Amino acid sequence: MWKGHKTFSAIISALEGKAIVHGGNSTLQNGNTENQFDQHEKYPLSVLRGPKEHMPSDVDPLTKEIYLTHDDFVSTFNMPYNQFRTLPLWKQKNIKKSVGLF
Predict the structure, then answer these.
(1) Predicted confidence (pLDDT) per residue in 69-101, tens digit
(2) pTM confidence score
(3) For the chain, N or C: smaller number of CB within 10 Å?
(4) What confidence score (pLDDT) does residue 8 get?
(5) Could you tell me the pLDDT band of residue 66, with boundaries at 50, 70 and 90?
(6) Is the predicted pLDDT of residue 29 greater than 70, yes or no?
(7) Which of these, 85, 70, 6, lies nearest to 38 by C-alpha position?
(8) How many angstroms separate the CA atoms of 100 and 58, rounded?
(9) Long-range contacts, 78-85 (Cβ 8 Å, 24+)
(10) What is the pLDDT of residue 26?
(11) How far is CA 55 from CA 45, 49, 67, 71, 76, in A?
(12) Do 26 and 78 touch, CB atoms closer than 8 A?
């Protein structure tokens, strides 16, 4: 049932930008949020706000905001991605709801 899902400690380590150890192998999670934002395919806001059935298969519905271009992100959220990521998670969630990306 849980195969393929991250453990709680792996999620915490990823959020803190620490190394995650899997069976003796260590991978460093990049703490640079700009790189995390830039590494994803970009889609128009209208696609990301659309119904789940029309969503591209590579889009994670919990993090739709990272699939916006920089310009679309700033015009939608009224702040750059780096600033958004510093907000508490509850506030990020509320903002995403208000702009139709949750």
Answers:
(1) 999 999 999 999 999 999 999 999 999 999 999
(2) 0.64
(3) N
(4) 72
(5) very high
(6) no
(7) 70
(8) 19
(9) 81/33, 81/34, 81/37, 82/33, 82/34, 85/33
(10) 36
(11) 11, 9, 11, 21, 19
(12) no
For 34-54, write each residue's pLDDT tens digit: 667 888 899 999 999 998 888
Ordered by where they begin, the domains of the chain are: 1-31 (no CATH), 32-98 (1.10.950.10)
CB 61 within 8 A of CB 69: no
Give residue for tokens 């905001």: 65
Q: Do the beta carbons of residue 64 and residue 37 sit within 8 Å?
A: no
Classify each residue of 55-90 as buried b or exposed e, where b means 16 or more C-beta atoms within 10 Å of its C-beta.
beeebeeeebbbbbeeebbeebbeeebeebbeeeee
